Amino acid sequence: MKGVLSVKMLAALALVLLVFGATDGRILSKCELKEELEAAQIPVIRAMGNKMTVDDLIAKLVCMASASGFNTSYVKAIPAKPKAPVIRQLYGVFQLSDQLACDSGMKPSLNVCNMSCSALIDDDVTDDIACLKTMISSM
Ligand SMILES: *[C@@H]1O[C@H](CO)[C@@H](O)[C@H](O)[C@H]1NC(C)=O
Ligand SMILES: *[C@@H]1O[C@H](CO)[C@@H](O)[C@H](O)[C@H]1NC(C)=O
């Protein structure tokens, strides 16, 4: 009986750790992100220039993600001027905008990716990459 209880308690503890751990975000490795980007087959579009290759594009996107510290839970508020009220927030490793990419429910957004901004700050980057791909395709 005692054994069963402690197994349950361990399971509950693991769940708590999982839930609270998720709020801290996950730090992706560059290689992990690169692999995810490669798997997503993001198209190179003409607006990126004639010389852009898929490898160049992926390198640029990894570089862009480095501004978030590869943190899947990254959120940054951008005020119009220092100390002014926040006008937009950027979400996730690719710092996608709540005026353009996703809907935070707090301000008008084009919501190009038709998704809630909160989905961009969970541990799963596949939806972030899907949104990035949608944004690029809609350019
Ligand atoms: C990731 O970003 C979130 C929100 O900006 C922050 O609270 C968290 O501490 C960051 N995680 C790490 C490991 O830096
Ligand atoms: C947006 O997402 C909602 C729910 O996920 C779906 O019902 C709706 O059809 C989507 N709209 C577009 C334009 O894709």
Structure notes:
Keywords: Signal. GO terms for molecular function: lysozyme activity. It comes from Culter alburnus (Topmouth culter). InterPro entries: Glyco_hydro_22 (IPR001916), Lysozyme-like_dom_sf (IPR023346). This is Lysozyme. The protein has 139 residues and is mainly α. The protein has a single domain (25-137), classed as Orthogonal Bundle (Lysozyme). It has a 3-stranded antiparallel beta sheet, with no helix packed on it. The radius of gyration is 18 Å and the shape is globular. The mean pLDDT is 87. The chain is built from 4 helices and 3 strands, in the order αααβββα. Helix content is 42%, strand content 9%. The chain binds 2-acetamido-2-deoxy-beta-D-glucopyranose (NAG) (2 copies).
Number of strands: 3
**Fraction of residues in helix:** 40-55%
Strand-and-helix sequence, N→C? HHHEEEH
**Overall tally of structural domains:** 1
Terminal residue distance: 61 Å
Bound molecules: 2-acetamido-2-deoxy-beta-D-glucopyranose
**Shape verdict:** globular
The CATH architecture comes to Orthogonal Bundle
- Strand line-up in the sheet with most strands: 1-2-3
At the third CATH level, what is the topology name? Lysozyme
Radius of gyration: 18 Å
